Amino acid sequence: MVSSLICFKILLVEDNLPDVIILKKQFQKLQTLSVKLTHVSTCRDAIFSLQSHDFDVILLDLSLPDSHNLDTVKTIYSHSGDIPILILTGLDDQVTAIASVREGAQDYLVKGQINLDNLQRSIRYAIERKQRLKEINILNKKLSTSNQELENYAYIVSHDLKQPLQTILASSQLILHLEKNLKEQSYQLLEFILASTNQMNKLIDNLLSYAQINKKSIEKEIVCVENIIKNVMKFLNKQIQDSKASINIQMNNNNKPIKVFYNSIQLSQILQNLMSNAIKYIPYDRTPEIQITIEKKEETWLFMVKDNGIGVKPEDQGRIFEMLERVDTDRKYSGSGIGLAICQKIVEINGGKIWVESILNKGSTFFFTIPILAIEN
Fold first, then answer.
1. Please, are residues 113 and 86 in contact by the beta-carbon 8 Å criterion?
2. Cα distance between residue 3 and residue 172, in whole Å
3. What is the pLDDT of residues 93-116, one digit of tens each?
4. What span, in angstroms and rounded, lies between the C-alpha atoms of 256 and 232?
5. Which of 309, 342, 312, 343 is nearest to 329 (CA)?
6. How far apart, in whole angstroms, are the C-alpha atoms of residue 286 and residue 280?
7. Which are the contacts of 301, defined by CB distance < 8 A and separation ≥ 6?
8. Of 164, 227, 264, 352, which sits 20 to 30 A from 102 (CA to CA)?
């Protein structure tokens, strides 16, 4: 009868002959898997075997005649490719064994405690874990490629869309400038074309900004939060003046400047979007009052942008961060529906969280966090 047992090719790297004999006897007793064992006693011979044969798993003793401890793991790991490594260690060497797992080994077995069950289970699990990791790495590479293709596509599309929009914008402005005797209806139509074109331009810019957030070339640096806020307020100056908004800033850091390790452009984008929304989404009979508070909470900086605007319904507070989501379905307020999605993507890609607490017709407070890193100190 043909055997249905799975055959695993195992490389045993062990220089202690009694341990080798014990392991071979254990392998002979295995009933649910078949083993083809190759035994070597030095690191050099192990490398040669790895270069000339295929293996499913490596059983590795840390103390060899030509290599010791973590150096053994690092050397074998550098030549093992996708082959999982199981460390063989003595009772007094588990600290090194655990460190070996951090260096790339899948697991460790304590000599003297190896039995049929844990030997068989460790081999199976090590191979399965390595296979899952390999699959995850393949998926991550595909995802990275897809993201890059999407980013390139977004750039090309935005470039191709913006060119005709610029032509429409320039032509409309030229007509308004040259034609002094336009009828009121024609004038209003041109104004509508200009406003729609500018809105489309802004939408394309936001889509491109969203697509490019994942770019690895974005560099972080130590940035002063107060300076970022000042620059954002300068950028929003017209919106602030037109709305007569009052903005109060409170930085709770014992009168010391708050500095974070972040990309300054991305931090500006977050604050600009949140502050602009706080000014924009306000009842027509109300003057915007905005409170910006920053304080340390455990291992993070907590940013709070509070307004006295229209508020957000409880059922909408989760979805407002989704792409192209608008909670003002009657479109009383202008907006692209991308700003908060950009904020969420930036915050999360930098290891933070963002959320909102709101009371309808009373106002909202948007929170986001930035991890405090040792480099900031």
1. no
2. 81
3. 778 778 888 888 878 888 878 777
4. 21
5. 312
6. 11
7. 225, 258, 260, 294, 295, 369, 370, 372
8. 352
CA distance 293 to 305: 7
pTM of the model: 0.53
Q: Which two tokens stand for residue 118?
A: 């844990």
Q: Taking the CB of residue 265, how many other CB atoms lie within 10 A of it?
A: 13
7 beta partners: 34
Q: Just give the CATH number of 221-376.
A: 3.30.565.10
Query: Whole-angstrom Cα distance, residue 353 to residue 349?
Result: 9
* Nearest alpha carbon to residue 349 among 368, 325, 335: 368
Please enumerate in sequence order all residues whose Cβ is within 8 A of that of 54, keeping only pairs 6 or more positions apart, or say none. 9
Residue 125 and residue 108 in contact, taking contact as beta carbons nearer than 8 Å: no
CA angle 310, 315, 318 (to 5 degrees): 90
When the candidates are 3.30.470.20, 3.30.565.10, 3.40.50.2300, 3.40.50.300, the CATH number that belongs to 6-114 is 3.40.50.2300
Q: Which residues contact 23 (CB under 8 A, 6 or more apart)?
A: 12, 14, 59, 114
Q: How do residues 349-359 score in pLDDT, each as one tens digit? A: 888 999 989 88
pLDDT of 297-320, one tens digit each? 888 999 999 999 888 888 777 788
Distance of CA 24 to the CA centre of its chain: 46
- Pick from 28, 29, 35, 33: nearest CA to 4: 33
E strand intervals along 56-123: 57-61, 63-64, 67-68, 85-89, 107-110
DSSP 6-43: EEEEEEEE---HHHHHHHHHHHHH-SSEEEEEEEESSH
User: What per-residue string of b and e applies to 127-137 under the rule 16 or more CB within 10 Å gives b?
Assistant: beebeeeeeee
Question: Does residue 47 carry a pLDDT above 70?
Answer: yes
Length of the chain, in residues: 377
3-state secondary structure of 325: coil
Element (H, E) at 246: strand 246-252
| 19, 41, 67, 376 from 38: Cα distances, Å | 14, 10, 19, 51
